[in-house]
Every structure is written in C-alpha cells, then in structure tokens.
Inverse folding.
C-alpha cells in the first residue's frame, strides 16, 4: 500500500497525483523485486556504494553519520555521493566520501533531471553494489533501477518504492541523521555516532577545485650569513610555478600565528635556518630547509625537515637541485 497519498511529501497536488498513478502501475513489480534487509547484504573489496541526496547543504551534512557507519562496516569499499552541483563542495567535509557525482544546476528541477537523467544513469550503470536514496526521490530511484544497482534502499515519501529492495517510512520523532542510519539497520549507534562530524582535508579540497598544490616559502633569516642569494630565489619560484601555486610568507610584528596558519594549509614549505622553518617542521608540513654552513645543522636544524646545505653568500646550491629535492617530499 505504499502508493497511498498520505505518505507522499509533495506540496503540489499535481505532482502527488502524477506519482500516485505511476506508483499504481509499479505495484506489480513488488512480486519481482524481493525485499531484503541491509544485514543480509555482503559486499566484497572494491565494491562501490552510492548515496544520492539532491537536497541542500544541511541534507549532505546529515548524511555524514551514514557515510561514516558504512565506511566502518565496509572499509574496503568506496563511497560516492550524488548531489546538486551547487552544493557539491560540501561533500569535501565528509571524510568517507571518495567521489562526487553532480546534477547540474537548473532553475527547473524536472528539466534538470530530464536533461541529466540518462547520462547519470549511464554514468552509474553497473558501477555500484548498493545505492541509497535519502530524499525519497523517484527520479533517483528510477535511475538506480535503470542502472542495475543490485541492492537499493530509500524512503517511501516520494514514490517508486516498489523499485527498492528495502525502504522505511520517514519519521517525525527522530533526527534525519538517525533516520538515515536506521535505513541501513544501524539501530544501536551511540549518540556520538548519530551526530554529524566533519573534517577539513586540504589535499582533498585542492583536488576537487583542480588546483595545483600550494608551496609556501620564506626567504628571510635573522643573520646575513644564513641568506640564500635573491636571484636564486627568483629562479626557484619560476621553476616551482610550472607545477605548483607559489606564495611567499612575510612576517611582521604579531603576524606569526597567521603565518603558521597559512603554512599549515600548504602542501609544502621552503625556508632558511629561521623560526618559520621550525614552525613548518613542527606542524608536520613537508619542509625543505636551505641551511647555511655558517651554523651547525645538527644543533640548529629543524627536526623533521629535509636539509640542503650551502656555503654563506655562495651559489653552490642551485634552484634545480632545490626543485628536484622538493618533489621527493611533496
């Protein structure tokens, strides 16, 4: 009886009537699509799981506990999320998401799906062992069915639940995050497990934005004998810019915390025998220290840094050598 209108979330009467009619025709499929419980499904290493929710930013955050629980249950399986293009970067905050599939932005939701539905279906065809529809979206369910996903789960609020192997009715007495977990039979999750948790992964963010890795450098030092010639810095920057984003860190009185924060965001750091280099090393950033032989690197060298020695005021350490050495640690 999943086609009864009281279970639908549509505010527009025309949408509700249209989906009721479609659902009535789909009811016979219940005899051909056996109902299964989540716990009866066994995935193997390399399988992929699709979680689709074409809602807003909050909806994606509320899906995080499910992503985390699935990652713990199936550590050798990849988890992809299908979301709207305008909120796709929110998925970067979910540590367990391996890939993001996007529905292009459009003023008309139906037009977007008609334009994109077939290509989305083709993109996910025979790629996933399990699929979740967290919105009660009949378009998503139809795509998962058309793509041949062998185990499909979702909510009964939008229609086409006959195409699902397992579904739950939406509940008003628990959070959406908990409802998502219960859809996958994660009933005994602790309070900490139910509450969304997000992380910031700079490398993942850079990959998503298709940006080059960020290298920051600081060419200053407290003594002239520690300095590397300025024209060599310029040559090094020209080399680095071919493959990296390059940014110089400059310090003024009271700016050390801000400099440290920027170093912590970088993919690598280059500096001399100076305080910022020690900060970069202490932050566990890939650190390359150009160290003048005017001082003893065993005594004063940064603990975790890769050290390259040069004689004071000389050009015996070439930019190409520094560039090649950096590539081994970044």
């Amino acid at each position: 009886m999943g086609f009864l209108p009281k279970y639908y979330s549509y505010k527009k009467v025309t949408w509700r009537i249209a989906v009721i009619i479609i659902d009535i025709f789909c009811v016979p499929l219940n005899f051909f699509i056996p109902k299964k419980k989540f716990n009866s499904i066994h995935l193997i290493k390399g399988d992929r799981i699709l979680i689709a929710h074409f809602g807003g930013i909050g909806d994606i955050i509320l899906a995080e506990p499910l992503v985390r629980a699935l990652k713990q249950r199936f550590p050798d399986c990849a988890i992809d999320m299908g979301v709207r293009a305008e909120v796709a970067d929110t998925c970067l905050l979910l540590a367990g998401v391996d890939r993001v599939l996007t529905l292009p932005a459009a003023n008309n939701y139906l037009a977007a799906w008609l334009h994109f539905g077939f290509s989305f279906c083709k993109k996910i065809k025979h790629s996933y062992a399990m699929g979740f529809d967290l919105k009660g979206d009949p378009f998503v369910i139809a795509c998962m069915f058309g793509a041949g996903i062998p185990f499909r789960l979702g909510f009964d609020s939008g229609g086409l639940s006959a195409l699902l192997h397992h579904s739950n009715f939406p509940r008003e007495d628990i959070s959406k995050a908990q409802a998502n977990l219960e859809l996958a039979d994660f009933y005994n999750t602790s309070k900490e497990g139910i509450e969304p948790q997000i992380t910031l992964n700079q490398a993942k963010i850079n990959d998503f934005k298709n940006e080059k890795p960020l290298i920051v450098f600081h060419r200053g030092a407290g003594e002239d004998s520690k300095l590397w010639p300025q024209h060599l810095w310029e040559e090094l920057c020209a080399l680095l810019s071919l493959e990296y984003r390059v940014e110089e860190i400059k310090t003024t009185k009271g700016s050390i915390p801000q400099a440290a924060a920027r170093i912590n965001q970088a993919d690598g750091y280059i500096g001399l025998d100076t305080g910022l280099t020690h900060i970069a090393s202490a932050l566990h950033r890939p650190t390359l220290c150009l160290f003048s032989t005017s001082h003893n690197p065993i005594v004063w060298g940064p603990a975790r840094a890769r050290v390259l020695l040069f004689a004071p005021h000389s050009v015996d350490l070439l930019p190409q050598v520094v560039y090649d050495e950096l590539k081994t640690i970044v």
